[in-house]
């Protein structure tokens, strides 16, 4: 049986205007210290402050940990909000979701959660996932639970105008990885395929333009929509080996998540293409996006898809050369492989890899 639902209400437009329905609320805004001083957030706070009690929780750090969740819980106990607004990239949204989820596990009512992404990458505003880091174990663990879903997601392209070029590239490639992994995920359906294919097409269409013209609203909106579409797609279809590896090289080698995905995406496509079903799905994507013709066989189409991704990397200046210390990588490769094989995202990969295959992919990075 296939069940497809989009529990999160997605709103597209000016965030300040879309939040005008909040009245008489106690609102805790979860963001990092940099965004706390941004003009965009100040505008949102100003629009809310006359009708609501507002407080900012600014202790968001990259790759949130269990300790960060505990600090957030203490803040909730002091302020006692009835509404959370997660404002930022994946770390801010994941932390707000994890805090809310923890409250539910402790028997409290779930707070109304509104997610406003300021990057076009994780799609966390519409997923039931939150990635938590365990630094003492050099590991990232994805949590999956329906209680992690935000109630509303607001896509406001102007919130992404100031994202630096390198971050735009890395988060855009993260979107592409989400879409492509959803295409071959074992729970993929016609519904998730439609969203994933559109998301991938938008990345190819707009990522390079957004890096050249950061204030191009059409390009920024296209990427923000792609991120959301890919999030809904993988929330149903699942992720796979690329994310399982990216989680661990991020946790151990401290490679940013989008960049980590970009480094492993191509070798994972090649590995998964040993499955005739996965190869057929990659081939369909290549044909749909115009990278391959109907006269080419599936494996030839897979190569056309890989070539298209390589061209995109070149257009946006994404360097696929190794960014990790070779000696450190070799020191931790066994631990990283263990973590990959136990990462929950691997369960929806089209092929379950042998340990030697995972080690080979990590060793080649």
TrEMBL record:
GO molecular function terms attached to this record: alcohol dehydrogenase (NAD+) activity; metal ion binding
Cofactor: Fe cation
Protein name, entry field: Iron-containing alcohol dehydrogenase
Pfam family of the protein (one): ADH_Fe_C
The keyword Oxidoreductase is annotated on this UniProt entry: yes
UniProt KW Oxidoreductase keyword: yes
Keyword annotations from UniProtKB, A to Z: Oxidoreductase
Family that this chain belongs to: Belongs to the iron-containing alcohol dehydrogenase family.
Domain Fe-containing alcohol dehydrogenase-like C-terminal: 168-364
Domain named Alcohol dehydrogenase iron-type/glycerol dehydrogenase GldA: residues: 12-156
InterPro entries per UniProt: ADH_Fe/GldA, ADH_Fe_C, ADH_Fe_CS, Alcohol_dehydrogenase_Fe
């Amino acid at each position: 049986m296939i069940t497809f639902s989009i529990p999160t209400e997605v709103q597209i437009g000016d965030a300040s205007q879309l939040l005008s329905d909040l009245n008489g609320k106690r609102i805790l805004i979860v963001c990092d210290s940099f965004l706390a001083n941004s003009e965009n957030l100040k505008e949102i706070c100003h629009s809310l402050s006359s009708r609501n009690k507002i407080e900012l929780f600014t202790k968001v750090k990259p790759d949130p940990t269990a300790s960060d969740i505990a600090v957030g819980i203490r803040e909730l106990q002091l302020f006692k909000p009835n509404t959370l607004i997660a404002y930022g990239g994946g770390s801010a949204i994941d932390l707000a979701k994890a805090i809310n989820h923890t409250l539910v596990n402790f028997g409290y009512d779930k707070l109304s959660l509104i997610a406003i992404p300021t990057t076009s990458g994780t799609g966390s505003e519409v997923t039931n996932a939150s990635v938590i880091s365990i630094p003492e174990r050099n590991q990232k663990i994805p949590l999956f639970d329906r209680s992690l879903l935000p109630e509303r997601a607001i896509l406001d392209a102007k919130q992404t105008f100031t994202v630096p070029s390198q971050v735009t590239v890395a988060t855009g490639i993260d979107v592409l990885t989400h879409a492509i992994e959803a295409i071959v995920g074992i729970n993929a359906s016609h519904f998730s395929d439609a969203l994933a294919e559109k998301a991938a097409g938008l990345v190819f269409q707009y990522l390079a333009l957004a890096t050249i013209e950061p204030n191009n609203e059409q390009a920024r909106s296209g990427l923000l929509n792609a991120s959301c579409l890919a999030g809904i797609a993988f929330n149903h279809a699942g992720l796979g080996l690329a994310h399982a590896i990216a989680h661990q090289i991020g946790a151990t080698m401290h490679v940013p998540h989008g960049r980590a995905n970009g480094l492993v995406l191509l070798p994972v496509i090649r590995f998964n293409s040993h499955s005739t079903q996965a190869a057929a799905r990659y081939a369909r994507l290549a044909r749909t996006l115009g990278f391959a013709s109907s006269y080419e066989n599936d494996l030839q189409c897979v190569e056309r898809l890989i070539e298209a991704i390589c061209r995109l990397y070149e257009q946006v200046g994404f360097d696929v050369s190794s960014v990790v210390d070779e000696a450190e990588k070799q020191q931790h490769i066994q631990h990283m492989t263990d973590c990959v094989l136990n990462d929950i995202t691997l369960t929806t990969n089209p092929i379950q890899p042998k340990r030697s295959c995972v080690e080979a992919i990590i060793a080649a990075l």
